[in-house]
Amino acid sequence: MVSEWKLRKLSKNDTEKTNYQKKIPPKTNNIKFIKWFWIAFIAGFLLIALLFLLAGLGAFGKMPEFAELENPENNLATEIISSDGKTIGTFFNENRTPVSYSELPDHLVKALVATEDERFYSHSGIDARGTIRAMVNLGRKGGASTISQQLAKMLFTGGSKNIVERIAQKMKEWVIAIRLERQYTKEEIITMYFNKYDFLYQAVGIGSASRIYFGKEPADLKIEESATLVAMLKNPILYNPQKERFKKNSLQRRNQVLKQMEKQKFISTQVKDSLQNLPLDINFSPEGHAEGIATYFREYLRDFMEKWIQENPQLNPVSGEKELYNIYRDGLKIHVTIDSRMQKYAEEAVKEHLSNLQKEFDRQNKDNKTAPFRDIEKKDREKIIKQGMRRSERYRVMKEAGKSDKQIYASFKKKVKMRVFSWGGAIDTLMTPRDSILYYKSFFQTGMMSMEPQTGHVKAWVGGNNYKYFQYDHVKQGRRQVGSTFKPFVYATAIDQLKLSPCDSLPNVQYTIEAGRFGSTEDWTPKNSGGEYGGYLTLKDALAKSVNTVTARVMGRIGPVPVVRLAKKMGIKNDIPEVPSIALGTVDLSVYEMVGAYSTFANEGIYNEPVMITRIEDKNGTILYQNVPDPRDVISKEAAYVTLNLMEGVTRAGSGVRLRTGKSYRKDYKRVVTGYPYEFTNAIAGKTGTTQNQSDGWFMGIVPNLCTGVWVGAEDRATHFGSVTYGQGAAMALPIWAIYMRKCYKDKSLKVSTNDFERPGNLGIAIDCDAYNENRKVNTNDEEEMDEFE
Predict the structure, then answer these.
(1) Is the same domain home to 133 and 242?
(2) Could you tell me the residue range of the domain that residue 152 belongs to?
(3) Cis amide leading into 372 (omega within 30)
(4) Is the pTM of this model over 0.85?
C-alpha cells in the first residue's frame, strides 16, 4: 500500500503539473497559429489575384481593349497656328492641344514626379510601398495612386458613387495601370497624363493650360510656373491661381511642389528658397470662342473650314467610305498667315483710338435730343429702335413662343440685369433691352486688315470692337461707302491708259458730265467738299487735297467702264455701277476688297488675292491642303509706281499730312488721338475717305511691304459726328493706322519697310514736277490745251 504521505505528494505534483500546463501552451498551439496565418495570407493573395483576374475579364465593368490602349480616344482641338508659330486660337469640344514629350520642359516633368509619384521610374504601375503605407494609415498620410493609375482613371474608369464601386474601380485602375506600363514607355505615360488633365477654364491638357494661365507654350514655362500647374493636379478648383478666393491655396501648394522638388534633389535649397519667395504671377489668356486675339478672323476661319470639310472628305482606310473631318475633335492644325504680334498691335491700336474717339462722341452728344443719331426726326429714331428690336434674339425667341408684337415690345421696356460692353471693361447693370439697343448703336465700330502685297498674306484682321458683344465682321462681311478712297482707281486707269503724269495740271472749276454720256441718266456736276474753286491743280495736288472737280474731269476723259474693269481685276467682287459718280466713291465695298486692291499698287501692278491659310495638317502632320499662289498682272509697273507717287502726296501735303506733323490742326486733337502727331518720315502712300454726313471714315495706307486699310463708322449711318473735324477719315480712321504702324516699326523683328517704293527702270512718266514744268510751261489761260485734254 502506498502511504498517505506519498499519495499527498503525488497529488501535489499532479496539481503543479496541471497548473504549469495551463500557464504555458503546448507546441501544438503555435503550429496551429502559424498554419492559420499562412492559410489567411494565401487566401488573401489568391483573393487579390482573383480580383485582378475578374477585373481583367471585365467583371467590374468593361475593360479597354488593346486597340483602345494603343489609341486612347481623345477629343483633340483644332489648332490655329500663326505665321510666327503661336497658337492664336482653337476649335474644340475639349480645348486640348496635344504636345510631345520633347515639348515638355525637364522641370515640369520633375515637378510632376516629385509631387505625384516619387518612385515612378522604379515601379510597374503600382507602388507597393505606397499602397501598404496608405492601407496602414487608412489614407491619412496620402494616397498611393501612381501617375499610371491616375492616367488609367482619367482615360477609362471615371468616378464612383460608393465604397463598393470605388473598390471595383480601384481594381480596374490597377489592371489598366499595369497594362499601360507594358504598352507605353514612362515618357509616353507622362505625356499622355499631361495631355489629358483638365486644368479648368477650357484648358484641357498642358498645351492649353500653359497658354491660358501663362500666355506661353509649355516649353517656355519657368520652374515656378511649372510648379503652379503641377500644384493644380491635386484639385484644379481649390488650387486654381485664377480664382481670387483660392490664390492663397495655389501659392502654398506651389511652394509645396517646390519643396518636393528639393527633397528629390531636382533643385537646390537655394533655388527652392528664391522661387518660393516669388509672387503668384499668371498671365490669364482665356481661349473661348469669343475670347483671345483675332476672334473675328477665327470666326471667318470657322466658316471657311466648314465649307472646306464638306468639299474634302477623308477616306476611311478600313471601311473604304468617305468621312468628314471634325474641326472640334480631330486635332487638325491650320497654319494661317496672321502674325500674332501684328494682330496684337492692331487690336491695341483700335482700342487706344476708338476708346478716346468714343469719349469725344459721347461728350458732343450730351445735348443731342436724338442721340446717338443726328440729322433725323424723333419718329425716325423710333423707327431705327424698332428695327433693332425686330432683329434681336429676344424678339426671335418670343415670336417663336407665340407672343404677340405688343407683348414683345412691352418686354423691351422692362429693366433686366445685363452685362454690357464698355472700353473700360464689361459693366454689370440694370437696363431695359430697348435702352441697350440705343446704347450699342452709339458705339463706333471698325474694320481693319493688314496685308503683305508681295505674297497676299493677311497679317492682321480686326473685324470689330469685341466679338462677344458685336459679332458682325466689318472686314469681309461689312460693305460701306468708300468715299475718296476710290479715287486712286480712277487716276490709275488714266495713268495706265493715257500715260498722264502727276504733274499734269487741270482747272479747278466745276465740271459737268451730261446726261446720256457714259449711260448716265442725268447731269452730274460734283462739288468740292470745301467749296473752294479756281486756278489749276496738278493731279498730285488734286488727289492730295481730294478735289472732286479734278477727279470728275479725269473720269470724263476715260469713262467709268475701264475704271470698273480695273477695279474688278484688282479683286473687287461687289457690283460697281458703270456710272461717272463712282469716281467719288459712291459704291459700297469691304475693307477686305479694298486692301487687296490697293496692295496691287505696292506689288508692281500684280494682284495677289488675300491669303489667310497656308496649309492644313491632320493630327499626324500629314498635309491636307496647301495654298498655291495665283498672282495676275493688272496694270503696268510704271502705272502702279506713278499711282503710289500720287498717293505719297496725300501724306506729305494733303489730308494725310498729320502722319508727319501736327501743325495747322486743332490743338484739342491731341486729347482724342493717342500719340498725335506721329512724325513718320518714311515713304507712305495713302488715301483718306469721308462720306456724306461723316458716316464713314476711311484710311488706306501703304509702305513697300505692307498695305493696311481701316474703316470706322457706326452700325447706323445716322450715328455720326456733327462736323468734319472729328468725322473725317483723317480723324476717325487714320490714327488707328498710325498707332498700329508705330508699334510695328518699334518691333524690329517684323522688318516692316521704311524704304522708298522701288522705282521701275526707264520710267517714262514724269514725277519730278519741278523738272517737268521747266520743260513744259503751263499757260492757265490756254483754252486749246484744256480742250485738248477734254
Answers:
(1) yes
(2) 96-286
(3) yes
(4) no
